[in-house]
Amino acid sequence: MPTCEDLRLGGTLSGSGITGGVTINQTNLAVDDWSDIFGHGGLSYTPVEVLGRAGAYPVGDGLPLARFPTLNMRLRSAHQCPPGEDLTDTFLALLADSGGQYLEVDIPDEGSRFIKVYGLTPASILQPRQIRTVKVPLFSPDPYWKEGGAQNTDTISGADSLAVGGVVNVYDAVLVFAGDGALVHNDLDWTLTISGSSGPVTVDLGNRTVTMGGNPADYVLGPSSRHWGWFIPGTNSLSSSVSTTVTWRDQYN
């Protein structure tokens, strides 16, 4: 079970993880109930025409659409953990930020996991039996919790394989093709082909973007069918006719 030091909100995400933000033990708050923090997956994507998201290709039966965690906290008059600067107001302001913030939780013996969350409604403060509690419903556009810390990177060339951890598929890996060529997933039967490039091409599978030199370059990508690529937990059998760097984070329900 996580402790009061194991939940952080805010900060900046980079390839090495999340830095900054506010830990809950810097506030006059404590997690009252951990049972709802991981939330539940939302509905699956409907067809692209209904969503109106250009370039969002559904995969199989569709990707999970969102996640709905609930952060249950209690207010306390004194810290139960080693006290730090009182940043309660800062923490609550981050929860109310319309731009969203990263929520990171430490998992005993398994590192940390995070998602980006948005507050659904202003938190209500109840006062049963003289104990004040705050229940904050949250929304995350990310269907899965991502592994914290440094992201994973591997380079695929020729007949090769990619070892992916976690327990769910990875739909948001980033691929960097050194130039023209094709990346083939032998197990899932998909191919991504780059043609007509003049340098390295970055394909962001999660955001469905293709860039070359920092500029949009959708015209150089040819997917093998209506879906883009994705990876499964375990060993992925791949082959590539061009050096391709894959960057991803293992993911969990």
Rounded mean pLDDT score: 82
> How helix-rich are the residues, as a percent range?
under 10%
Determine the N-to-C terminus distance: 17 Å
**Total of helices:** 2
* Helix/sheet category: mainly beta
Low-confidence stretches: 43-61
Radius of gyration: 21 Å
Total strands: 21
Q: Shape from CA axes?
A: elongated
* Order of secondary-structure elements: EEEEEHEHEEEEEEEEEEEEEEE
Largest sheet properties: 10 strands, antiparallel
SS strand fraction: 35-45%
Provide the number of structural domains.
2
Essential attributes:
mainly beta; 253 residues; nine-stranded antiparallel sheet; Jelly Rolls; 2 domains
Short description:
5% of the residues lie in helices and 43% in strands. The chain has 253 residues and is mainly beta. The chain starts with 6 loop residues before the first strand and ends with a strand.
